[in-house]
Write a structure and sequence with these properties.
The protein is an all-alpha fold. The chain is built from 29 helices and 2 strands. Belongs to the SEC15 family.
C-alpha cells in the first residue's frame, strides 16, 4: 500500500517519461519483450539498457527502504521461525516413533493382505474359467441340438440354431480350438442342408408334376359341372318360354365358379416349396433357388407340351390339356401364396410359351381330323380349359381364336355327315303318306317340328300329308343345329346367332335342296313320288320357321325377334322355288302319262264315214287317270298346288288336241272326226267342272275355272262344227266366239278339213244341201284366210 506513493515520489524527482513507462511495465509484470525487440530493430539498444539500469537502481532503493521500514517485524519473524523449527524436530521424532510402531503392527496385516489379494486373483480366474466353460458348454449344446435337427430333417431349426451360434457365441467362444472347429463345420452343415433340401424339393417337383393331371382334371370337372348346371337352367327356361310361362329375354349367361370353391377342392401341398425357399433365404441364396425352380419348371413345361404321336390325339387330348391346366393352376397358387418368390412376368412368359404351342398343336390336329364328333369333343374340352384358366387370370383369347379358325372345317365335316344322312333318308323314303297310330308318335313327328295343319289333335289312326322323309330330315337338321350351337357356344362370339343362321341356310340350300332337286330331276320318278316330294317340300318350307326359332332358343335369342317376316331364312325362298320345280316335274310326269293314254293320231279315225255316237274308249282311261291324280293330289297337296296340277293337266289336253290338228302327221280329217273329238272334249269339260267344284277351288279361284283352260280347243271344235265357219272372219263374231284362235293355226287346220272323201266313191256320194252350204262356207273361210295371210 505504501509502494505506490514511493513511485510517485520517484517520478516527481526527475524520471523521464520513458523510464516511467518501463518501470510501470516491469511493476505490473508485463512483457517487455516487444520493447527490447523494437530497440534492437531500431539499432538503439543503449538507451534501453540505460533505462533498465535506472529501473534496477530504483528497485534497489525501494527494497532498502522497505527493509528499513519492516526491520523489527523481520526480527520477530525470524525468532518465531526458530521456534517452529524446534517444534518440527520434536514432531519428526514423534513421527519416527509412531512409524516404527506402525511397521511392527502392519507387517502381519500386509501378509494377510497379500494372501487376500492372491485369493481374489484365484477367485477371478475361477469365475472367468466358469464363465468361459459355460459359454463353451452352451455353444456345444447348441451344436448338439443342431446336429439333432439335421439328423431329424428339421433344417429350418438347424439353420436357426447355427445362426444363433454365429450371432451370439462364435465371437465370444474363448477356446480357440473349439471356435475354429465350429467355424469349419458351419459351412459344411449348411451345404449339407442345402443339398438335402434341394433333393427333397426335386422329389416334390416330380410329385407335383405327376399330380398336375389330376389337379387339372378336377378343376376342369368343376367348370364342366357349372356349365352343365347353367345349360340345365337354360333348358328349363326354354321350356318355360315354349309354354308361354316366361321368357329368356335378352339376358346374358356367363359361367362363374367361385375361386374359393376351387381352392377348397384343389388341395395340393406347397409346403416343400415354402420350406425350401425359406431355407435358401436363410442361407442367403434365395435368387439361386428361384432360378433353380424356374428352370426346372420350364423344363417340365416343355416336356408336358410334347404330344405323343403314337396315340391318336382324340384319345390323349384330355390328358394333354389337363396336364397343362394343372401346371398353371400350381403356378397361380405359388405366385399368390409364396410372396415374392415367383414373378408375374416369369409366369406370363411360361404361359405365352404354352399357349403358342397349344394353339399350334390344336391347329395341326384340327386340320387332320375327319370327324365332326371328334373335333367337337376336343373343342368342348378346350373351352373348358379356357374357362378354367380364365378363373386364374390367364389370357385364353388365342385358344378361342384357334377354335374360331376351325369353325368352317367343323361345319364342313358336320355338313358332309348330315348330307349322307339326308341322302339316305330321301333315297329310302317310300313316298307314301305317313301313318301315325299313337299320340306320342304324332307329337314326335308332327308337333315337334310344327308340321300340324290344325291346332286340334286329330283322331288316330292319322294319315299325315307328308311321308316319313320329312320328320327324318327335320331330325337331321335339328341335330345339325344342335351340333353347330355346341361348337359355337363358349367361343369368341357370345352372340353367334347370325353365324348359326348362315350355316343353317347352308345345309338347307346346299344339301337338302340339292338332294331334293337331284331326286326331282331323276327320270325314273313317278307321279306319286313327284306329288309326295312336292308335298314334302311344302312342309319342309314350313319347318324352316321351326328351325330358325329352335336355333334362336338355343342361342338365347327371344323367339319374337325371329318371328318377323323379314327375319325368315333364305332357304325358305329356295325351297319354294324347288317346290315349283317339283310341281313342274309332277306335271311333266302327268302330261307324259296323258300322252300315252291319248295318242290321238293312233286312237282316232280321222276320215271315218260313220257318225260317232260317243267319246273314244281312250277317254275313259284319261278320265280315270285324272280322277286318280286329282284325288291323290287333293289328299296330299295344298290348294294352290292342286289347282296347278288340275290346270296343267287340262291345259295339256287342250294343247295336245290342238297340236294334233296342227301336226304334219295329220294330213286330213272330216266332220265325223271333229264330232268324235267334240264328244271327247265334252267328257273332259264335264270332268273339269265337276272337279273344280268338288275340290272347293271354285271358292278360291273364281275367275279361272278348269274349263277356262279348254277354251282354245273348244272354240276350234265349235268353228269346225259350225254351219257357217266363214263367220270367223267377222270381227264381232270372232271376238265373241273365237277370240283365242290364231289365224295361222286356223288356216293350217282348215286346209286339212275335208268334209267329203276323195276319190271315185266320194264323187258318187250323196250330199245334202246343208253339207254343201257348210262346205262352201268352209271353202270361203279357207280362201279368205289365205288372202289374209
Amino acid at each position: 500500500m505504501e509502494a505506490k506513493p514511493k513511485r510517485r515520489i520517484v517520478t516527481e524527482n526527475g524520471d523521464t517519461g520513458e523510464d516511467l513507462v518501463l518501470a510501470t511495465l516491469i511493476g505490473n509484470g508485463d512483457d517487455v519483450g516487444p520493447l527490447v525487440r523494437h530497440a534492437f530493430e531500431m539499432g538503439r539498444p543503449e538507451p534501453l539498457v540505460h533505462q533498465l539500469k535506472n529501473v534496477a537502481k530504483k528497485k534497489e532503493t525501494e527494497i532498502e527502504d522497505l527493509c528499513k521500514t519492516h526491520y523489527e517485524e523481520f526480527i520477530v519473524a525470524v525468532d518465531e521461525l526458530r521456534g517452529v523449527l524446534v517444534d518440527a524436530e520434536e514432531l519428526k521424532s514423534d513421527l519416527a516413533t509412531d512409524n516404527f510402531r506402525l511397521q511392527e503392527v502392519g507387517s502381519a496385516l500386509l501378509v494377510k493382505l497379500e494372501e487376500l489379494l492372491e485369493s481374489y486373483a484365484v477367485k477371478k480366474n475361477v469365475t472367468e474359467a466358469i464363465k468361459m466353460s459355460k459359454i463353451c458348454v452352451q455353444a456345444l449344446e447348441l451344436c448338439v441340438k443342431c446336429n439333432s435337427y439335421v439328423s431329424e430333417g428339421q433344417f429350418y431349426h438347424a439353420l436357426k440354431t447355427m445362426d444363433l451360434i454365429e450371432r451370439n457365441y462364435l465371437k465370444i467362444i474363448p477356446l480357440k480350438v473349439l471356435k475354429l472347429a465350429i467355424e469349419r463345420r458351419i459351412p459344411v452343415i449348411k451345404s449339407h442342408i442345402e443339398k438335402k433340401v434341394c433333393s427333397q424339393f426335386t422329389e416334390w417337383l416330380a410329385h407335383i408334376r405327376s399330380s398336375s393331371k389330376s389337379i387339372g382334371q378336377t378343376a376342369i370337372g368343376l367348370i364342366a359341372s357349372a356349365r352343365q348346371r347353367e345349360e340345365e337352367m337354360l333348358e328349363r327356361q326354354r321350356k318355360a318360354e315354349e309354354q308361354n310361362t316366361g321368357g329368356l329375354g335378352e339376358s346374358a349367361y356367363t359361367l362363374h365358379v367361385e375361386e374359393s370353391e376351387q381352392d377348397s377342392v384343389l388341395k395340393f401341398d406347397l409346403t416343400p416349396l415354402y420350406r425350401a425357399y425359406h431355407i435358401h433365404t436363410i442361407l442367403g441364396v434365395p435368387e439361386r433357388f428361384r432360378d433353380y425352380y424356374y428352370s426346372n419348371r420350364q423344363l417340365q413345361l416343355d416336356s408336358d407340351l410334347e404330344i405323343s404321336y403314337g396315340q391318336p390325339f382324340v384319345e390323349s387330348y384330355q390328358t394333354f390339356l389337363a396336364q397343362i391346366a394343372g401346371y398353371f393352376i400350381v403356378e397361380d397358387r405359388v405366385i399368390r401364396t409364396a410372396g415374392d418368390f415367383l414373378l408375374a412376368d416369369q409366369v406370363e412368359t411360361m404361359w405365352e410359351t404354352a399357349i403358342a404351342k397349344i394353339v399350334l398343336v390344336l391347329e395341326n390336329q384340327f386340320a387332320r381330323m375327319d370327324s365332326p364328333t371328334h373335333l367337337l369333343l376336343v373343342k368342348d374340352y378346350v373351352t373348358l380349359l379356357g374357362a378354367t384358366l380364365r378363373q386364374y387370370g390367364y389370357e385364353v383369347g388365342p385358344f378361342l381364336d384357334a377354335l374360331d379358325k376351325s369353325r368352317d372345317k367343323y361345319h364342313e365335316l358336320l355338313l358332309e355327315e348330315c348330307r349322307k344322312q339326308i341322302v339316305t333318308a330321301i333315297s329310302e323314303d317310300s313316298y307314301q303318306q305317313m301313318v301315325i297310330r299313337k299320340e306320342a308318335d304324332y307329337e314326335n313327328n308332327v308337333l315337334s317340328f310344327n308340321l300340324q295343319t290344325s291346332e286340334i289333335m286329330p283322331a288316330f289312326t292319322y294319315i299325315a300329308p307328308f311321308s316319313s322323309m320329312v320328320p327324318d330330315v327335320c331330325r337331321i337338321i335339328r341335330s345339325y343345329i344342335k351340333g353347330s350351337v355346341d361348337y359355337l357356344s363358349y367361343g369368341v362370339n357370345t352372340n353367334f346367332f347370325s353365324v348359326l343362321r348362315k350355316y343353317l341356310d347352308k345345309i338347307l340350300i346346299d344339301v337338302l335342296n340339292e338332294v331334293i332337286l337331284e331326286t326331282i330331276n331323276n327320270n325314273s320318278i313317278g307321279v306319286a313320288q313327284a306329288m309326295q316330294i312336292a308335298a314334302n317340300i311344302s312342309f319342309l318350307e314350313k319347318a324352316c320357321d321351326y328351325f330358325l326359332r329352335h336355333a334362336a332358343q338355343l342361342c338365347g335369342i327371344p323367339s319374337r325377334s325371329v318371328e318377323k317376316p323379314q327375319a325368315s331364312l333364305s332357304a325358305k325362298i329356295v325351297l319354294k322355288t324347288s317346290r315349283d320345280e317339283a310341281y313342274h316335274a309332277l306335271l311333266n310326269v302327268v302330261n307324259t302319262k296323258l300322252d300315252e293314254f291319248m295318242k290321238l293320231p293312233e286312237n282316232i279315225n280321222w276320215i271315218t264315214e260313220e257318225m260317232p255316237q260317243g267319246p273314244h274308249e281312250y277317254m275313259n282311261e284319261v278320265v280315270i287317270y285324272l280322277e286318280t291324280v286329282m284325288s291323290t293330289a287333293q289328299q296330299i297337296l295344298p290348294a294352290d298346288a292342286l289347282y296347278k296340277v288340275g290346270v296343267g293337266a287340262i291345259e295339256h289336253i287342250s294343247n295336245a288336241i290342238v297340236s294334233t290338228f296342227l301336226s304334219d302327221t295329220l294330213k286330213r280329217f272330216n266332220a265325223n272326226a271333229v264330232s268324235a273329238i267334240n264328244h271327247d272334249l265334252r267328257v273332259i269339260e264335264n270332268f273339269a267342272d265337276e272337279r273344280y267344284h268338288s275340290t272347293g277351288l271354285d271358292e278360291i279361284y273364281k275367275e279361272g275355272s278348269f274349263r277356262s283352260y279348254l277354251v282354245e280347243v273348244r272354240q276350234l271344235i265349235n268353228l269346225l262344227s259350225s254351219s257357217q265357219p266363214e263367220n270367223f272372219m267377222n270381227p264381232v263374231i270372232r271376238e265373241r266366239n273365237y277370240n283365242t284362235l290364231d289365224y295361222k293355226k286356223v288356216a293350217t287346220i282348215c286346209d286339212k278339213f275335208k268334209d267329203s272323201p276323195d276319190g271315185i266313191f266320194g264323187s258318187l256320194a250323196n250330199r245334202n244341201t246343208k253339207l254343201t252350204a257348210k262346205k262352201k262356207s268352209m271353202d270361203m273361210l279357207k280362201k279368205r284366210l289365205k288372202e289374209f295371210n
